[in-house]
Design brief:
- The strands form two sheets. Strands 1, 2, 3, 4, 5, 6, 7, 8, 9, 11, 13 and 15 form a twelve-stranded parallel sheet that branches. This protein has a three-stranded parallel sheet with strand order 10-12-14.
- By secondary structure, it is mostly beta strands.
- The chain is 7% helix and 36% strand.
- The termini are far apart.
């Protein structure tokens, strides 16, 4: 699966930003935000375009309709962050923590998450297109009623991950560990390998109410 990477011009000059620049309705372009504690900040309709965030804490931040485009997030703390109806286009996130984050009804296109934690994260109603999760933890992550198109889970751990009423198309989890997934009847379009099919057969049988007995 080929994703469009963030379009960061090699000759771009990034200006340093601070917490005071994170304001409602603000549009920040070509900025670098580093080692900043923006925990619990509130800013609706904030836009970040061609930005670099490094070691930024957005824990418990409420950023309704946040728009991030052509940007990178490295080693950021986003636990409990609320970004309902957000938009993430051509974004790369590395070694960041999204535990308990809320992405309800968000749109994610051409996004890569590598080495990130999504335990208890909420993607309900979100639309994910060309998204890669690489070496990520997705324990108790909620994808209910979401749409996943051309999404890959690579070397991830999906445990008690919920897919009820989700729509999947070209979703690849062949290299990931799958433990007690929920909503198997909605996972048409999920690609597994032969070993995984044998391992998840008891989960699938239990959810569908199948009885398995020795003959």
């Amino acid at each position: 699966m080929k994703l469009q990477p963030p379009k960061l011009a090699a000759t771009a000059v990034f200006d340093d930003a601070s917490l005071k620049d994170i304001q409602p309705e603000a549009t920040l372009t070509n900025i670098r935000l580093a080692n900043t504690d923006a925990a619990a900040v509130r800013a609706a309709n904030l836009s970040l375009d061609e930005c670099k965030l490094t070691h930024v804490s957005l824990a418990q931040a409420r950023l309704e309709k946040l728009s991030i485009m052509d940007s990178t997030l490295d080693a950021c703390m986003c636990t409990g962050m609320h970004v309902p109806d957000g938009s993430f286009i051509r974004v790369s996130c590395n070694a960041s923590r999204f535990t308990g984050a809320h992405f309800a009804n968000a749109v994610l296109k051409d996004v890569t998450f590598q080495g990130c934690k999504f335990d208890l994260a909420n993607f309900r109603g979100a639309h994910l297109t060309r998204v890669r999760f690489i070496d990520c933890a997705l324990t108790d992550t909620d994808f209910q009623m979401s749409t996943l198109e051309h999404v890959s889970f690579e070397q991830c751990v999906l445990e008690r991950t919920e897919f009820a009423h989700a729509t999947l198309g070209h979703v690849d989890a062949r290299t990931s560990q799958l433990v007690d997934l929920r909503g198997w009847q909605y996972m048409r379009g999920l690609c597994l390998d032969v070993t995984q099919v044998a391992a998840v057969a008891p989960q699938l049988a239990a959810e569908l109410g199948l009885r398995v007995e020795e003959s």
